Amino acid sequence: MRRHAIIGRFGPLDVSPVPVSANEVSTRLDLVGPDGRLDYGIGQALADAAALSIFPTEIGLDLLVLAAHVQAADTRISRTTESQDTWTREIRLVVPVSDPGRWTSTVPLLKRTLDFLTGDLWTVGFRSRPESFSRIVPPRQHGLATTPYDSLALFSGGLDSLIGAIDVLEAGKKLLLVSHAADGATSGAQSGCFDGLTRNYGLPNVGRLRVWMSFSKGLVADVGSEDTTRGRSFLFFALGIFAGTGLGQRFTLRVPENGLIAVNVPLDPLRLGSSSTRTTHPFYIGRWNELMDLLEIPARVENPFWNMTKGEMAAACSNQQLLKALVPQSLSCAAATKGRWQKRGIEHCGYCLPCLVRRAALARAWGAGNDPTVYGLPDLAAQPLDTRRAQGEQVRSFQLAIARLRGHPGLEKILIHKPGILADAEDRLDDLAGVYRRGLEEVGSLVESVQTKPL
After folding, report:
1. 49, 28 contact by CB (below 8 A)
2. Alpha-carbon distance 72 to 39, whole Å?
3. Is the domain of 120 the same as that of 262?
4. Does residue 34 form part of some domain?
5. φ, ψ of residue 198 in degrees (nearest 5)
6. Do 79 and 150 lie in a common domain?
7. In the prediction, which pLDDT does 273 show?
8. Within this chain, do residues 69 and 15 fall inside the same structural domain, yes or no?
9. How far apart are CA 299 and CA 293, in angstroms?
10. Looking at the whole model, is its pTM more than 0.90?
11. DSSP string spanning 363-422?
12. Which domain holds residue 113?
């Protein structure tokens, strides 16, 4: 196991000393490209935001720079070779920011947040940007139109974010959607859904800020990349807050996610800790709200669907006709490109965990046989599924989890505590337990007649 330090630098003249211990592998993260523009999509994000009449604060930009450090470390430091247990890495970040004094007060909170999110051991430190980069965000020009948006939401291209966007727009709000461009499949889903929303509501009422951030595979010398990406939601939330600070008013960042996945109780008792994502867990969202307070950003992060199953979300969507039209554009599959080797292109596999939750939800909302999504495995019950292969693994896991709950009434009130601390939701524990049970029963209606066994 080796400790790693990711040290951010604003250009070749940024040479202020940063001590590195003898047992650390130090990696320089050059934040300024050869053209003098901020790299890793940050400069483009500023330009695209300005085109939307959005001018983030310097603290908002600092947050995006911090997220770049987190994303670089999370995706370019292999768990297999750089940890003792093939999971837990020791990572130190040194981030140049506009106001180190304000940021230093957040260090304990950031460590707690990142440790919880990724399962690693993080250390975060801050230093001043070089004088030539003390101010980066262009000021709003005098007389320029005010920001045209009064609502803000993350937009993944998935079904939950699509429902969330429709509900806000149906309420007459002017909505800015914030996305990470990610891979081609996800990017295509985001564009397809966004185009459908703009056709229905018009560009004056819905806009999009989409940021692409990636790092070369050789960023950390002689170390392989990492594909678990448990830290990616830190980037997503940071993008949203970055944009929100440019709205010029108090704002709420909506992070739409159904309650079953938000609590995300492991289906398998052995699948604990960071083996399950914590992107919208109540504890994680609570720490972001605490961070906003410390940074004096007038914002709140909230999941408006924390107490609803995915099927309940779909059934309650305020424009059913539009949702049904755009569902095929949305993407839920964990690996939508897995069918390419069979020349099937991008599609929903139909049997991964998010596909099963999606299928069950749309059957719950619209009735069996009314889901317009094309699945690689169209009929789960057509033949027995092999539990030793991907097609049967998650189905069987759901079956076992559902049987466990049915055999032990009230167990859900215990299980919801397994993924993480729920101190921020003590007044919502019964609701969280309820949505977990209803979410599993929703999937149960889909898989209970499916035969699974080792083949």
Report:
1. no
2. 12
3. yes
4. yes
5. -70, -35
6. yes
7. 40
8. yes
9. 8
10. yes
11. HHHH-TT-----BSS--TTSSPEETTSHHHHHHHHHHHHHHHHHHSTTTHHHHTTSSS--
12. 3-155+208-217+228-299
Enter the tokens of residue 92: 């130190």
**Residue 251, token pair as written in the block:** 């704002």
Give CA 205 to chain center in angstroms: 24
Query: Looking at 250, 278, 299, which one is the last position of a domain?
Result: 299
Which two structure tokens, joined as six digits, stand for 97? 């920011």
Q: Which two tokens stand for residue 196?
A: 């459908």
Residue 319 included in any domain: no
The alpha helices in 121-252, defined as continuous H runs, are 159-170, 184-201, 232-244
Identify the pLDDT of residue 185.
Answer: 87
Q: Report residue 304 as tokens.
A: 């408006």
Q: What is the pLDDT of residue 338?
A: 67
Are 275 and 346 within one domain? Answer: no
Kindly state whether residue 314 falls inside one of the protein's structural domains: no
437 with 405: CB under 8 angstroms?
yes
CB 303 within 8 A of CB 278: no
Exposed (0-12), middle (13-18) or buried (19+): which is 346, by Cβ within 10 Å?
Answer: middle
274 with 344, same domain? no
Partners of residue 352 on adjacent β-strands: none
> Of the residues 299, 321, 354, which one is the last residue of a structural domain?
299
- Does 257 share its domain with 368? no
User: Which residue is associated with the tokens 């483009």?
Assistant: 44
360, 440 in Cβ contact below 8 A? no
pLDDT for 275: 46
CA dihedral 70, 76, 80, 86 (to 10 degrees): 0
Same domain, 285 and 389: no
- DSSP code of 130? P
For residue 173, being part of any structural domain is answered with: no
Whole-number pLDDT of residue 139: 81
pLDDT mean by block of 10 residues, the chain; 455 residues: 96 94 95 95 96 95 98 97 93 98 97 96 97 90 74 97 98 97 86 98 96 94 93 96 95 98 84 63 97 98 98 98 98 79 73 97 97 96 96 96 96 95 95 98 97 93
- The total of structural domains in the chain comes to 2
Rounded CA gap, 128 and 105, in Å? 14
Three state DSSP letters for 132-161: HHCCCCCCCCCCCCCCCCCEEEECCCCHHH
d(CA 355, CA 336): 10
At 207 the three-state DSSP class reads strand
